[in-house]
Amino acid sequence: MNIKLTLTIEETVIEKAKKYAKVKERSLSNLIENYLKALTTESNQKEIELTPIVKSMKGSFNAPKDLDYKKELTNRLSEKYLK
Question: How far is 72 from 6, CA to CA, in rounded Å?
């Protein structure tokens, strides 16, 4: 059952949203409804269930406290692709 809803939104946002909806060949109501569905579904799925294999590996690696992940990744990728 559909129910009418009145929203107060900045005019420029509405105009941009209408253009977007037209390009996507959808109604503005449809876009907003699907966005709200996605928001409410997302909040219900905060915890992702891990597979048994992933659970068994969880906590098996302890990185040093001073590990600079981005620097390490840059170094490894440089070794792989630049040498």
Answer: 52
